[in-house]
Amino acid sequence: MVIVGDDPASRIYVNSKKKACAELGIYSEEHALPVSTTEEELLKLVEELNNKSDISGILVQLPLPEHINEENIILAIDPKKDVDAFHPVNVGKIMVGNYDFVPCTPAGVMELIAESGVDIAGKECVVVGRSNIVGKPQAMLLLHKNGTVTVCHSKTKDLKEKTKKADILVAAVGVPEMITGDMIKEGAVVIDVGMNRLADKKLVGDVHFESAEKVVSAITPVPGGVGPMTIAMLMKNTVKAAVINRTGLK
Ligand code: NDP
According to CATH, what is the number of the domain 1-80? Predict the structure, then answer.
């Protein structure tokens, strides 16, 4: 795990990932670099980790300080060690449907849906948000499971008309409690990816839980829903990376 600077949220995420590794007996090391670190220095560290045989997975915690080009860093990570699945090689593999690693948050969402016994095939799936980290890969994964997928974003006209059609609704927007009960179809399955810290420090999702839970057949809470699943999927990718890097098998 590589962390640059002292962003408090990034520190919490890295600590949770370190804790999960320790609980599972996965060797981990943290490279905490000062905010003044240059892009060249970070690239050099990534290259060292690429070449270390006892490291199977490399995670560079985002966001990086503004003077570092995130894309250059992601491109530098060996795709076989890219446990976040952000490298374009892994992104492309997800598009094609023949992938080694799936980005952790969308993978966690899929696992939650599968564990709940919900069959995605033929369902109207609506993803609100189109980020490279969540929305886009989420849409692809739902499509691979034969959902009929609509992706919404900030320019979508009449969002409510779209969300109201969803049998499965994934909210990954970053706007506190913006999806309210009246925007949700009766009996829908709602996955709330959002993690928003309010002024009073309360953590809330993108879905207004109280109004939504009256309408849905299933809904994930915030905190405690997708967040822990993201870390679990990171661990899964790391174990997979260890197998791939050591044996060449998948
Ligand atoms: P981004 O900010 O990268 O993307 C947000 C997306 O939401 C964009 O596509 C944006 O549209 C869209 N959007 C913004 N406002 C609206 C609106 N009013 N109506 C419709 N769409 C809108 O966020 P992320 O994808 O990185 O994260 C989304 C949320 O998920 C955040 O709350 C984040 O904290 C949380 N998160 C949680 C994780 C977990 O482990 N639980 C992991 C990662 C993220 P446009 O593209 O047009 O700008």
Answer: 3.40.50.10860
